Amino acid sequence: MRSDLKKNFTYRITNANKTQLITILYEMIICYLGDAEECLDNKDYTQFDLNISRTQNCIDELIHSLNLNYELGQNLLSLYLFEKKELISFQVKKDKEILRHALKTFDELHRVYQYLEKQDTSEPVMTNAQQVITGLTYNKYNMQVDISAYDSNRGFKA
After folding, report:
1. CATH 1.20.120.340 domain position(s) in the chain
2. Each residue's pLDDT tens digit, 27-64
3. Which residue of 26, 77, 125, 133 has the smallest Cβ count within 10 Å?
4. In sequence order, what are the residues at sequence separation of 6 or more whose Cβ sits closer than 8 angstroms to the Cβ of residue 105?
5. CA 91, CA 82: separation in Å to the nearest integer?
6. Contact 39, 142 (CB under 8 A)
7. 0.90 exceeded by the pTM?
8. What's the CATH code, domain 3-119?
């Protein structure tokens, strides 16, 4: 994953509510799977394995976020476990059809959560996070980020 994407995900995570966090995880999975495919095409198997591992870590986070008291949570658990198993198969067989299926699954889930995001008006999970304001200092060729008012009492409360 490119460093600019990592920074973007980090910023979004610090300002995200629960629904947005799930959406971000889906985006990260899609990104890591795309990187894995690229590494497979380039025969860079070390980075390929690393991207599959990172994808599985994101799926683990999704699993830990489930409320299994509801049928939907149990159904999503089954889906996530199935996709983890398929990724292991993809890692061994290197069959792109398996990758396409996983990408399609997580892309569909991502679209659903993007819709749900619009319905969820709850506060960000992390409170007291540093505020970042973009565009205060810029010129024709460069835009800088201003971190507003440093507060020594700042910290993450999740």
Report:
1. 3-119
2. 999 999 999 999 999 999 999 999 999 999 999 999 99
3. 133
4. 79, 83
5. 14
6. no
7. no
8. 1.20.120.340
